[in-house]
Amino acid sequence: MDSVLSLISGHYNYWMGIVLMMLGLYVAISRGNLIKKVVGLNLFQTSVFMLYISMGKVTGGTAPILTGKPDTIYSNPLPHVLILTAIVVGISTTALALALIVRIREAYGTIEEDEIAAIERQFEFPKDRVA
């Protein structure tokens, strides 16, 4: 039992990343509201960011500034740089998604998936008709 607790407590940030990832995936899949889907995807994306940053942490490591000491342990800055880029891309993708949701709301009068699908089915042409 102690080994299980030490495994969980020793990797707390990984477990929280996994919990947030599954929560975001659940919200994105289970909800029909387009805004809630975007929020779920953002939660999923944030959990991935946390996971990558957690992997970049080196216990006892310092910033990669050369000091001349041969036994210095350095942290890898690459995950942090990649996540900064991913955050910018994520914000712009979220802005685009919200702009599309506004246009969908103007066109259909709703942002619920099932209502949009019902409206689309009303205007569907029969398959045997040629346009």
Automatic annotation (TrEMBL):
One of its GO terms (cellular component) is plasma membrane. It is found in: Cell membrane. It is a multi-pass membrane protein. It comes from the Bacteria. Keywords: Cell membrane, Membrane, Transmembrane, Transmembrane helix. The keyword Lipid biosynthesis does not apply. The keyword GTP-binding does not apply. InterPro entries: CPA3_antiporter_subunitC, NUOK/Mnh_C1-like. Its main location: membrane. The chain crosses the membrane at residues 12-29, 41-60, 80-102. Belongs to the CPA3 antiporters (TC 2.A.63) subunit C family. This is Na+/H+ antiporter subunit C.
